[in-house]
Design a protein that fits this description.
Layout: E1 3-7, E2 14-18, E3 23-27, H1 30-36, E4 40-45, E5 47-52, E6 57-61, E7 66-71, E8 77-82, E9 87-91, E10 102-107, E11 124-126, H2 128-134
Parallel strand pairs: 3-10, 10-11
Antiparallel strand pairs: 1-2, 2-5, 3-4, 4-9, 6-7, 7-8, 8-9
């Protein structure tokens, strides 16, 4: 099983994740775009363990089904958790090594601004309604 490590920009928070890949996802929902200043690019993982700086985590419940976690020291985006399923998604840019990963799915594709796109034509695209149905939050 693949073990990946990562952390925030300032180094206060470090984590270890198992599983996940080779495909990562992109969320285009309005909340993600406001949270990170663009699409949220993340890797769904099987397990997520904070190995350093758990006391530096800033978590907020952004909806009935979502929790967003960042570093309280630098403000860096770290994780998104799907509350109904317990699914954890780590921000791709926080990984120490993202080699071998490729775009696999875009969610809230119906909310994606026309001003940007991704080069992969093969990614699965779900509307907001389709994604909410998939996680049982519809």
């Amino acid at each position: 099983m693949t073990v990946r490590t990562g952390g925030c920009a300032c180094g206060a928070v470090r984590y270890e994740a198992t599983g996940g890949g080779p495909a990562f996802g992109v969320c285009h929902c309005e909340t993600c775009r406001k949270w990170v200043g663009g699409p949220f690019v993340a890797l769904q993982v099987e397990t997520l363990t904070v190995t350093q700086g758990e006391d530096r985590l800033n978590a907020w419940r952004s909806s009935e089904w979502g929790e967003r976690v960042s570093c309280a020291a630098c403000g860096g985006t770290l994780f998104f958790k799907v509350v109904p399923t317990g699914e954890a998604n780590v921000a791709l840019g926080t990984l120490d090594d993202a080699a071998g990963l490729e775009l696999g799915m875009e969610i809230f594709a119906d909310s994606k601004p026309a001003a940007y796109g991704f080069l992969s034509d093969g990614s699965k695209k779900l509307t907001g309604a389709e994604f909410l149905k998939m996680i049982g939050a519809a």
